[in-house]
Amino acid sequence: MVVLDIIFYSFVAIVFIQLFYYLVFLRAFAFIKPKPVQPQDFPVSVVVCAKNEEENLKQFLPSILNQDYPNFQVVLINDASADETLSVIEEFAEQHSCIKIVDVKNTEAFWANKKYALTLGIKAAKHDHLLFIDADCKPVSNTWISEMTAGFETDKSIVLGYGAYSKIKNSFLNKLIRFETVLTASQYFSYAKMGIPYMGVGRNLAYTKSLFFEANGFINHMNVRSGDDDLFVNQMATSKNTSLCYATESFTESVPKKTVAAWFRQKRRHVSSAKYYKKGHQFLLGVFYISQLLFWVVGIFLLSFLFHWEIVVGLFALRLLVQWIIIGQTAKKLNESDLVILIPLLEIFIILTQLVIFISNKISKPRTWK
C-alpha cells in the first residue's frame, strides 16, 4: 500500500503539472483576442524550395503567383530534383516575370541538405522581407502575403504563421496529423505570446534577410538535416522581434501524408531537431511531454487497482475538461473544430507515436530532408 500511496501522490503532482501547462502556458494563445493589423506595402520575396515537386508546383504555384499584393518576387529553388521540377519552374518563369529561378546542384559537402539550397535562394532574393512556403503547400487566400507581412511591425523581424493540412474524410490518420499540428501550434504560438518563442514552421514563416545574415545563416546547425525553420527561429527569435499571425486568411494548407509510414518518416525528421533547442525550451517541452505520458500511464495503473478511484477519476475528469476547453478553443481558432470530440483518443496515439519516434531516432538518425 505504501508503494501505491507514493504512486497516487505522484499522479496528483503530475495532474497539477499538466494543469499548470494548460492554464498558464497554452491558454495564452487559446484565449488571445485578435488585434487590428496595419497592412504593409513593402516589397517581399516569397521563397519556395522544391525537390521532386513537379506535380505539386503545377497545382499550388498559381495560388502564390495570384496573390493580391502590390510588389512581390517568387524565388523558386530547384534542389537537385530528379524529376521535371526544373522544367515546370522554367515554364512558369516564362509567363511570370516576378519569378527568380535558383537551380541547385548537389555537392559532396552539402548533399541533400535543404539548408544549403535555401541559403542560395535567400541570397538570390532581392528583397529584405522573406516569406517561406513549401512546394506542396498553398495559401488559403489571395491575401496571404498581406496578412503575413502585416506582422512586420516596428522592430519585428520574425512572423510565425500557421500551416494547416488539408482534410481527408473518414481518415483517422488525417485527424491524427491535424491534431498533432494543432497541438504543436498551440505550443509555439502560446510560448511566443508569453515572450519565449522557440520555433516556427517553414511552410508558413517570415523573417528578414538582414536577420538571416545577422545569424550567419544556418551555419550553427548546417550539419543538422532538419531545422531550417524551427532551429533558426529557436536561435534568433526573442520576445521583442517576434510576432504572431493567426488570421484565417494567413493560413497555408499542405498535402498530408496518406500512409502511417510516410508520416512517421516525416515526423522523425521534424523531431530530430528538437535536441538542438535551447536548454530552457528543451526542459519546458520535455516536462510537458513526460507529464502527458505519465498522466495516462500512472492514472490507468491506479484505476486498475481501484486505488482511491474516486479521486483519480475526478482528477482525470478535471484535467481532460481543462484540456478540452483550451485545445478546443485553439482548434476552433485554427478551423479544426472537428477534432475536439476525439482529443483524448488522438492524444494517446500522439504520445505513443512520439515515444516510438524518440526511440527510433536514438537508434538511427534521419539522413535526408526529403
From TrEMBL:
Gene3D superfamilies: Spore Coat Polysaccharide Biosynthesis Protein SpsA, Chain A (3.90.550.10). It holds the Pfam family Glycos_transf_2. The chain crosses the membrane at residues 6-25, 283-303, 339-360. It comes from the Bacteria. The keyword Transmembrane applies. Coiled coil: none annotated. GO terms for molecular function: hexosyltransferase activity. Keywords: Membrane, Transmembrane, Transmembrane helix. Residues 45-184 form the Glycosyltransferase 2-like domain. This is Glycosyltransferase involved in cell wall biosynthesis.
